[in-house]
Specification:
The complex is a heterodimer of chains A (96) and B (373). With 96 residues, chain A is α+β, with helices and mostly antiparallel strands. Chain A contains one helix and five strands; from the N terminus they run βββββα. Chain A has a five-stranded antiparallel sheet with strand order 3-2-1-4-5, with no helix packed on it. In chain A, strand 2 and strand 3 form a beta hairpin. Chain B is of the alpha/beta class. Chain B is 38% helix and 17% strand. In chain B, the strands form four sheets. A five-stranded parallel sheet of chain B has the order 2-1-7-8-9, with helices on both faces. Chain B has a four-stranded parallel sheet with strand order 4-3-5-6, sandwiched between helices. Chain B has a two-stranded antiparallel sheet with strand order 10-13. In chain B, strand 5, helix 8 and strand 6 form a beta-alpha-beta unit. The model of chain B has no long low-confidence stretch (mean pLDDT 93).
Chain lengths: 96, 373
Amino acid sequence: MCLSIPSKVVKIDKETNLATVDTMGVQRDASLDLMSEDEVKIGDYVLLHIGFIMNKIDEEDALLSLETYREIIAQMDEEDRQRVILEDDNCANRAF
Amino acid sequence: MGLELKNLYDDFRNAETIKAYAKIIKEDAKKLEKPMNIMEVCGGHTHTIMKYGILQLLPQNIKFVHGPGCPVCIMPKERIDHAYVLAMQSDVILVTLGDMIKVPGSHGSLQNARSKGADVRFVYSPLDCLKIANENPDKKVIFFAIGFETTTPMTAALLNAVINKDIKNIFFHINHVTVPEAMAALLSDAACNIDAFLGPAHVSVISGSKIYEEFPRDYAKPVVVSGFEPVDVMQSISMIVKQFVEKRCELEVEYKRAVTHEGNLKAQELIEKFFEKAQNFRWRGLGDIPRSGLRLRDVYKELNAEVIYQDILPTQEINDHKLCICGDILKGKATPPECSIFGTACKPTTPVGSCMVSSEGACAAYYKYGNMI
C-alpha cells in the first residue's frame, strides 16, 4: 500500500492543482495538494502515492547513491582481480 | 551525467550491486559478537526481502523479524465489522482503498457485503470520492480511511476538499495509525528480540526521519531508514551491521534521495489540522497501543461516521479464529510457515487472517515467494 512509484513531471495545471506525470511511458494525473506552491516543476522526479505527489526525488542524492554503487562494484572487481593473481602466483604449472 | 527515470528503477535493482553488498555484509558480519535480529517494520520491505531472496544472501547470524507495517493486517475484526455494517446501510456507498475489500470480518468481507447488495467501491485515490459523491447526490459516501503516516495526508486533503467545496454527502471513518508507537510497544514486550530496525520508506517521506530519534536515544536500537528497492535494503542492512561492528547506535537514512529529517511539512500541517491522537487504538495481534491511532478533531464531528452512526456500530472486541497466528506474526514472534493453517485452510483465495489478504502481509509474501526457499 505504501509502495509509491518514481515518476517524471511532464505538465502542470495550476487551475486544478494537478500535475501530469510519466511513469515509464504511462501517464497519469496527480494532485499537488501536498506540495507547496511552485515547489514542483516540469522535469522534476517525484514520488507518487494514491493519486498524490508526496515529494520530490533529490537528483543529487540519487546520483551520489549510484556513484557509491559503482565504487563498491569496482572495488569488488579489483579484489577479485587481485585474488585471481594471488592464486595464480601459487600455480604449480607455471612455465617460468 | 544526468539522471533518467529508468535509473531510479533499474540501478536500485542491479544484481551486481546486490551481490557486492552481500559480500560486504558477509565480511562485516564475521565481526559481530552475537547473532542479530533486524525488524523490517514495513510490509513493503517484507515483500522486497522475500521477492528478491534477500534472506538467502545473508549470513546465518543475521535474521529478519517481520514487523506490523501493514495497515490492513493490523485492523482488528471489530473495525472491519464497522465497515461491513456501514456498507449494508441502503443509502450508503462505502469507499475504501486496496485490500480492505477482501479482509474477513465476523460477518464476512466487504466483497461478501457487495454480493449481498451493498454498494462498496474500491478507489485508487481518496479524491475519487468527490466524483462518486457528485454522481450520487442522494447517497451518503463514507470513506473508510486506512493506512499509516504515508496515507493520512491524502485523507486530510480529501477532508480539505470536502470543506472547501461544501460537499454535504461525504463522511469519514478514520482508522489511521502511527508507526513509532507500535515500534515502542514491540520493544517493551519482553519476549521481543529486536536489535535494530529497518525504517519504513514512505512513512518517513511524509513524517521525516525525526520520528525515529527516540529509538537509538532511549532504547539503544539503531534505525536505518531504507528505500524499497533490493539495493536499498541491502545497503541498509550493511549500514546496520557496520553500526554494530563499530559500536555505534544511530539513526541513519539510506533512502536519502527521498527522505529528509523534517519530511513533508505541508502534509504534516494538513494532518495536524484535521486529526489528533486517539487515546487508544487496538491493533490486531499487538493489543491496545496508546496514542497510536488518529481521530477526527471534534470540530469536524459532522463529518465523522463513527459519531453519526454510533448507535449501530458494534463496540465489542472480536478476536481472530483460534488457529490464526497473525498476532504472533505481526509481533515478529512467529513466521508464516509456522502457522498450522498456512497454505492449507488459509490461502490468498480463502484467507482466514488479514496477513494473507493484504498485499503487504507477511503471509501473502511467504505464500507468493516462499517456494524459492
